[in-house]
Design brief:
Strand content: under 5%
Order of helices and strands: HH
Helix content: over 70%
Structural class: mainly alpha
Largest sheet: none
Radius of gyration: 14 Å
Number of helices: 2
Length: about 55
């Protein structure tokens, strides 16, 4: 998965959460997925930042 794909999936999840039409099981699963996507995006950005600091 690319950073952009993760960000797009996270955005779609947030939109579905904002609608408020999910049952508790769906909500729980979407929050877990969103948390995983956030972690992935944070790690990707941290890795890029680290590479940039090393190169410059």
């Amino acid at each position: 998965m690319t950073f952009q794909e993760g960000l797009d999936q996270l955005e779609a999840l947030v939109l579905s959460l904002e609608k408020g039409e999910l049952n508790i099981d769906e909500l729980s699963e979407k929050i877990k997925t969103a948390t995983d996507l956030l972690q992935y995006c944070k790690e990707t950005l941290h890795s890029i930042e680290k590479k940039l600091n090393i190169e410059y």
